[in-house]
Amino acid sequence: MPTLDQSPKSLTPPKKPTLGMVAELAGVSPSTVSRILNGTAKVSPNKMAAVSEAIDMLQFRPDPAARSLAGGRTMSVGVLTQFIDSPYYGEALRGMEDVLRQHQYVPLFTSGHWNEVEERERLTLLQERKVDGIIVLTGRVSDQTLLDIAQDLPIVVIGRKLQGPQVFSIDIDNFEGSRMATRHLISLGHRSIGYVSGPMDHKDAIERLEGYKRELQEKQLPFDPALVVEGDFQESGGFRAMNRLLQSGKIFSAVIAANDQMAYGIRLALSNAGFRVPDDISLVGFDDLPHSAFTVPPLTTVKQSVYEIGVLAANAILQMLNKEAPAPVSISAKLVARESTRVARV
Amino acid sequence: MPTLDQSPKSLTPPKKPTLGMVAELAGVSPSTVSRILNGTAKVSPNKMAAVSEAIDMLQFRPDPAARSLAGGRTMSVGVLTQFIDSPYYGEALRGMEDVLRQHQYVPLFTSGHWNEVEERERLTLLQERKVDGIIVLTGRVSDQTLLDIAQDLPIVVIGRKLQGPQVFSIDIDNFEGSRMATRHLISLGHRSIGYVSGPMDHKDAIERLEGYKRELQEKQLPFDPALVVEGDFQESGGFRAMNRLLQSGKIFSAVIAANDQMAYGIRLALSNAGFRVPDDISLVGFDDLPHSAFTVPPLTTVKQSVYEIGVLAANAILQMLNKEAPAPVSISAKLVARESTRVARV
DNA sequence: TTGTATGCGTTATCAT
DNA sequence: ATGATAACGCATACAA
Q: Who among B85, B94, B294 is closest to A268 (CB)?
């Protein structure tokens, strides 16, 4: 009797195992194997066993392309991000990858560059590639576009509030986070607090500024528009914005940056102008990027578990693909007090 | 005559156009369309025109899954990175995405976590997904594994020197870069230069340390092993390593970090210990991460165009997929002198 | 519960 | 140069 020869010298080189081969080895029909693989129908325990034995005997793995063609799942989920190397969402991407991998899913990352047209193109691409579901990280596409897509695919949206069938959203609590930052400074005795906002056509930027205003109001402090300068969520924008604020001659003992990246730039601008942080001016950021624990001084900031958000998003998509409704989640921000803030000098 | 009705009310909802429909509309056979799409054979100009007209009339786009099944290209290239959110390779990923997109290719990013087993698994996965080519960013897999894979697919390796058919490698000049950093400090009058290395089982770490040693030797300066401490290429590792060096009591007027991330941690450790940068101690990094221009003080470092490397890698893969041999490239490092270094005090 | 037959959209192998 | 036809590997409607 011929032996199994897997050696390189074999005349019949080991071909890639197919579902058909599994069926044959297990003595059942291909459809039965398919059913077991997808849990599409009940199968008798003995065939079940035979098949799964055959599967790992042959080391069989279904071909995603064939599945896709036949109308099955592609085992891939599209992820629309803005920049693949975004320091902010990076951890979220990692979170997604980690959980998707455990479920044999593959993420298809693509970037929209904060451009609505481009974002739509990327979303279309993802659909063409027949992803099973889509995760959208913020972005500029209209809610309606997202809802339309949700007609075909389950979709998870991060950074918005969106309701609808096949839609699950995970919103970021910008407003509360920003209030916490402001409250922290006020409690340290600061009364004149500068604010470097993000681009004001950006939802996160708007909500964060709103939180700052509200907290001032709550604490009976005046809101002075001249203390607010607009940045672009980048280091360089924060740097420039702070220089503008400095040149305006306004007096302030603390600054809030709408995100950590800008806080870095602000820190440099302050330093160049001869101000020490936190001795002369306190500084608070937002996001708690991994790097923020290692700046000099370590940055006080508002933390959101971005990795966690990624995990939640991936789990949600997985559940929806499984016809389950994900439980609502709320991401709460918390203040991480480090050394860039101190009590105001009297 | 019936009009084209694309409205939602249409009884025949616009189906996704297929190659067959294009063929029919153009009055040719499916094979001809396929040939035009892939440039597989010569086709008469008139049919050519008819087909391309039909194509954009129907807005036809070939189905990647079907292509894959039929043995064609999947229009996707796998990218094995270590962490999807690596600050270092982030820009490279962006570079790849940018050029791949222009050629209708999609990158499939996957992470190996600096773990050889995991890396092999991911590479296998990429092959299962039938990517047309693979780009490997450093990693721990053996050269042999890579060469084996190259039997099936073109492969581009970044951070190694690898020769072989279907293999193209883009090496990083760690050695020279490190020498430049060392030379810079020596020229500023520093004689006792601390060195925080990467993990010593890491090629980049070894080569960079080698460059430091060599430059010292060249300049007739003694190499003192006690001035070298091992880090892990992370902020926290740099922080701890510097604390160890500080505790050892060794005297030094400058420090080289094997990468920027560690330099950040080192900067903090120095600051905590009461040393000013650059007044008391000069600091040089390696990589020139986007952030390094915004640290306080801005970091002197060795720049490599990581984005450019990504672009080159993607272009190389594309050329190989096109049966062309990519021209050899050399990535040269250059020193970016900023404000974390100054002349040694006598 | 299980098997058979058909189709998914494309490329490749033959013909012509 | 062009066309018919057979795969590719799987899921599903239908039959039993």
A: B294
